[in-house]
């Protein structure tokens, strides 16, 4: 988490930025942003959510990498502060993954976490 004089942040890896740009292009809207949310649930208490959005709400913060934007609401950002969003392709499949330094535990699939 941040101290009073630091602004919460997340970072996008180059791989995540490229994948978001490619997916937005496939949707026919290169201006789409990756929306990342945190909600209660999952096997560890909180779960990550990914979607596309074309608008920024009043309580959203945006982060950019290589011209690609991610948008996160302030409540989710508090739980994701310092995280890196990556896109990984391996034998198990392809997915966005979050490395969250605030998580004290996570599930095997990587979509839920505890603080």
From TrEMBL:
Domain of life where this protein originates: Bacteria
Q: Where is the Core domain?
A: 10-110
What sections of the sequence does the record tag as coiled-coil? none
GO biological process terms, alphabetically, are:
iron-sulfur cluster assembly
Q: Which SUPFAM superfamilies match?
A: HesB-like domain (SSF89360)
Q: Which is one Gene Ontology cellular component term of this protein?
A: iron-sulfur cluster assembly complex
Q: Which keywords does this chain's UniProt record carry?
A: Iron, Metal-binding
Alphabetical list of InterPro entries matching this protein: ATAP, ATAP_core_dom, FeS_cluster_insertion_CS, HesB-like_dom_sf
List GO molecular-function terms, semicolon-separated. 2 iron, 2 sulfur cluster binding; 4 iron, 4 sulfur cluster binding; iron ion binding
Q: Does the keyword Magnesium apply?
A: no
Signal peptide limits: none
**Entry annotated with the keyword Metal-binding:** yes
Which protein, by its recorded name, is this? Answer: Heme biosynthesis protein HemY
Q: Which organism is it from?
A: Kiloniella spongiae
Lineage, top ranks: Bacteria, Pseudomonadati, Pseudomonadota, Alphaproteobacteria, Rhodospirillales
């Amino acid at each position: 988490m941040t101290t009073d004089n630091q602004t919460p942040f997340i970072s996008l890896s180059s791989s995540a930025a490229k994948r978001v740009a490619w997916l937005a292009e496939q949707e026919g809207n290169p201006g789409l942003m990756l929306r990342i949310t945190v909600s209660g649930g999952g096997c560890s208490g909180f779960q990550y959510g990914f979607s596309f959005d074309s608008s920024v709400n009043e309580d959203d913060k945006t982060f950019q990498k290589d011209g690609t934007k991610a948008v996160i609401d302030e409540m989710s950002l508090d739980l994701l502060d310092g995280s890196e969003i990556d896109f990984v392709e391996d034998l198990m499949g392809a997915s966005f993954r979050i490395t969250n330094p605030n998580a004290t535990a996570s599930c095997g699939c990587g979509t839920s976490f505890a603080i």
